Write the structure tokens for this entry.
Amino acid sequence: MHRLKAHLALEESARRDGNGQLLSRLTGEFHVLLAEMHDNSLLMDIMRRLVTLSRLIIYVHESPLAHVCPEYEYGDLVAATEARDSERAGPLMIEHLDHVQGGLRFAPEAREDLDLGNVFTSPKV
């Protein structure tokens, strides 16, 4: 649990500093850290692939008015996980996924501001 809480502190710092590129990478890594807690190599591999694809989808389709991953959601998930409260954690994860989906716009218009290199480039910390 210590790693997850330390990771959340890094996310908060990136959010406070307005470092969106770092925050994007960290929010993806949060999901991988959750998978690592289960010591399941297949789950970790799947999560790494999903995070990579999700970062690309979010970068291309995120609404400029939305915040795909509200800061409180990960903290709530960590608290539920730490308490081993699966009845609470399940609905929290569904709420999180609903927020992610709600923050995406799949409009056909072209975006001139896209730089796909930013999606896969690690920012300087």
